[in-house]
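quick one if you have a minute, typing this from the bus. below you get a single protein, a line of residues and a line of whole numbers that encode the local backbone shape. could you go over both lines and see whether the tokens make sense for that sequence. anything you notice is useful, everything is just below.
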Amino acid sequence: MRKNRVLSILFASFFLVQSIALPIWAEEPEEQDVSESTVTAETETSTVATQTTDPTQTAVSAPTVAAAIPLDFAGDASVSMGSHSIDAMYPTVTVTDYTADAKAAIAYEVGTDTLVYASNIDERLYPASMTKVMTCLVALGMCNLDEIVTVNGDAISYLDISGSGAGLQDGEQISMRDLLYCLMVESANDAAVTIAVHLAGSEEAFVELMNQKAAEIGCTNTHFMNAHGLHDDNHYTTARDMAKIMTASIQNETFCELFSETYYEVPATNLSEARQMHTTNYLISDDLNQNYYDSRVIGGKTGFTTPAGRCLVTVSESNGMKLVIVIMGAEAEFAEDGYTALSYGHFEQTVGLMNYIYNNFMPAQVLSSNQILEQFKVNGGVTDTQGYIQQARSTILPVNSDMSALRYEIALDNGGITAPVRSGDPIGVARVWYQSQCVAQEQLYSSVDVEQNVVTDNSSKLVNPAVLINQSSSNWNILLIVVLAIVGLFVLAIAIIRIRSSVIRARRRKRRAMRRRRR
């Protein structure tokens, strides 16, 4: 009877465990996108990091950590809040450091794409013969330098003979190359009109091409009415736009030859003997006035009308910098005779600005090629990634600048990085600050591939095919199953102990019975 009672307990315990556990295992859990929930949790982090760079990775000393300056990270902060780009809002030199005595002045460093100096650079002013820089640039994109041009006397008849010119005559045949030298060296108005009519059919049509080119370059306050620059109320530009025009022009090798020439002899033509052309830019030649020659200036273009004042755009090189300087609306000073110039204004202003910048500023590299800036967590990724800069970036800073004062800020795209990410994918921007000015901004790229961390659902079945075992059941359900298994084992252990005790008692009774029979 006792054996039957123990067996009954065992069977009852087994079926109790089965009846409780099987419904739990067969329960379908709520579907959940684990990767999505992980990303949501991980994106609740700061997206702006201010840090120092590894000093072995950059050409400047490592900056100290500084508090991030609040920014609207849309757009290029180095333009809207700094000196990077010719369109920048704030130059490296403040007007309190140096003041040019002209209506407008700009100094732009080409190699580092830095706005170094700016004074009234967006006011519309008259460019006078600086217009011929655009005339030359457009012509070079359309002409063959060796083609022969026949001068149209009617087209140039309206020009004031007292203005600068090459003495071209109706029906004269001259090469395009010679006309361009007349345009840029002698600043010949008749050459400008002749070029325009030959290439576009009329001066008006050519001027349309000049305005289209200005817009293409990025000029926003420029409108040309003629090809030579003689006064017209609707013919204007700005110092900033003029700097853009010159910067685009010096990318052309032929233009650089033309604007740097100090003397050119036009060969004899069918209607004229050889003619000598002398530059109007005293800064590149000491033939006419030795007081103004400056070896740093490699080329430029002058301009003058009474409404425009003295104008000059130059390109100069010194101390590792290449400056485009535009002076507009400078005033000349004359002696009592009214003819002898004591100062021209535009030459002096250009030299003064060059001296100040070359003596007090220097190029400085602030980002290195392939420089690793920071390691970033990738939301939903199997690993992290590092952000790096592809191209080096330099700027113009005051000499003896404290390079440790540079601050590096990072703004991640869309608030963070989400897997999958490929090596070379853009992930944000890096900005370099010097004091309160953003001096550089570059795209930040991922250094490695980062795959998405996908959580798999491993499922299997019980021996009974009608009952599924869901391996992804909640921890609570698994804990309950473990507890029930422990209870079952405990009941089984008690049953085994009782059976063993029953067997021992039976053996004892048998031995006692055998002893009694022996007696």
Summary: The chain is about 30% helix and 25% strand. Residues 14-71, 459-473 have pLDDT under 50 and may be disordered. The radius of gyration is 42 Å.
